[in-house]
Design goal:
Layout (H helix, E strand, L loop, with lengths): L12 E2 L6 E2 L1 H18 L7 E7 L3 H17 L3 E9 L6 H15 L2 E6 H4 L4 H11 L5 H19 L4 E3 L4 H13 L3 H4 L5 E2 L9 E3 L7 H10 L16 H15 L3 H18 L9 E2 L6 E2 L5 H8 L13 E4 L2
Parallel strand pairs: 3-4, 3-6, 4-5, 6-8
Antiparallel strand pairs: 1-2, 5-11, 7-8, 9-10
The structure holds iron/sulfur cluster and zinc ion (2 copies).
The site of one zinc ion has 7 residues, from helix 1.
Length: 329
């Protein structure tokens, strides 16, 4: 590994497209500058803000929680932060990530709430996958996981009184989703791949932001490692069933040959979103209320209720006692 371009110490990271290298200290400064620039550029937070950080226990969302808590204590005293953890119920995987989350949350002394698929949707993701298989439903585990998780994040962020939800999506996630949407000819989804979603005209919709929008996955990994919040790599057992798995491998393979590839894709995405918006593709700003659950939806019945109905799961009222943690203050 090269030496730091700033101080000459041993580098932990090299920007392959520019040749700049950073030691631990200067990597953390580079990371901080880059994330703060993104937050400012897209006006993600107000000076006084209740930020709900959506946490899976994976390295990106943990890194985001850690980063925002540290940033708020150093530079944004008007922010309050609550972590919202969704436990999908993935046996042999989620238990470990939840343990890691609880350790980090206690070190940071941050409030949190855990919401479980089992309690809210009526089944764990593992049970949903079995049921879907029995019923011959043509969906991958990630489809159920993503739809129900987004549904619960919006619902609980609102319940917690959050003004904005921050998610740990990084640049790699965004360009992977972009490619997948293009492959599926889903341009209405491409339009939604922005660093800030909304504000959509629905009283139940909570704004979502992606502070790591311009940060590569390898950078969030190094940040998490250097801060001792990431101990190892484990992968969701369902990950390899998703097309994302192959897109990710393909993009990493291409990036080996072209270090600016992911940045170029991000800029292409931004140009295409501008063009699509001019053509009126995507939301017109008017969002409906799901006829079954009342949550914001692009269609008369939201996708979560649609999938729940296919699985034979009845809509259940939110139950006040399903959450765990230190409270929500
Ligand atoms: S890989 Fe798929 S199933 Fe696993 S946590 Fe991610 S979205 Fe959910
Ligand atoms: Zn240095
Ligand atoms: Zn619904």
């Amino acid at each position: 590994m090269a030496n730091c371009s700033v101080c000459g110490r041993k580098a932990v990271y090299v920007l392959r497209h520019s040749g700049m290298a950073f030691c631990e200290k200067h990597f953390l400064e580079y990371f901080d500058r880059k994330v703060r620039r993104t937050i400012r550029k897209y006006s993600m937070f107000r000076p006084r803000e209740h930020i709900v950080v959506a946490v899976s226990g994976g390295k990106d969302s943990l890194a985001l929680l850690y980063y925002l808590v540290k940033l708020s204590r150093k530079r944004a005293p008007g922010w309050s932060i609550t972590a919202l953890v969704i436990d999908e119920g993935i046996s042999g995987y989620r238990e470990q990530t939840l343990r890691r989350f609880e350790k980090v949350a206690s070190e940071l002394d941050v409030n949190y709430e855990i919401v479980r698929f089992r309690d809210e949707i009526g089944k764990t993701l593992d049970e949903i996958v079995t049921e879907a298989h029995k019923r011959g439903l043509p969906y991958m585990p990630c489809t159920f996981c993503g739809v129900f998780r987004r549904y619960l994040i919006n619902k609980y962020a609102r319940k917690l009184g959050g003004g904005v939800v921050a998610t740990g999506h990084n640049l790699d996630d965004i360009v992977q989703t972009f490619i997948m949407n293009v492959l599926n000819n889903e341009w209405d989804k491409v339009v939604r791949l922005t660093p800030v979603s909304g504000p959509l005209s629905h009283p139940k919709f909570v704004k979502k932001v992606k502070p790591f929008y311009e940060i590569l996955e390898k950078e969030t990994t190094i940040y998490a490692l250097l801060n001792g919040i990431y101990e190892g790599f484990e992968e969701c057992p369902y990950a390899q069933l998703s097309p994302r798995w192959y897109v990710r491998r393909f993009l990493n393979f291409m990036e080996e040959r072209n270090p600016t590839l992911k940045y170029s894709l991000l800029r292409s995405l931004e140009s295409i979103v501008d063009l699509l918006k001019k053509q009126g593709v995507g939301y017109s700003g008017e969002i409906l209320s799901c006829k079954l659950c009342g949550e914001p939806s692009a269609h008369p019945i939201c996708r979560a209720c649609e999938l729940r109905t296919m699985l034979g799961l009845k809509l259940r009222e939110l139950r006040a006692n399903t959450a765990e943690g230190k409270g929500t203050g």
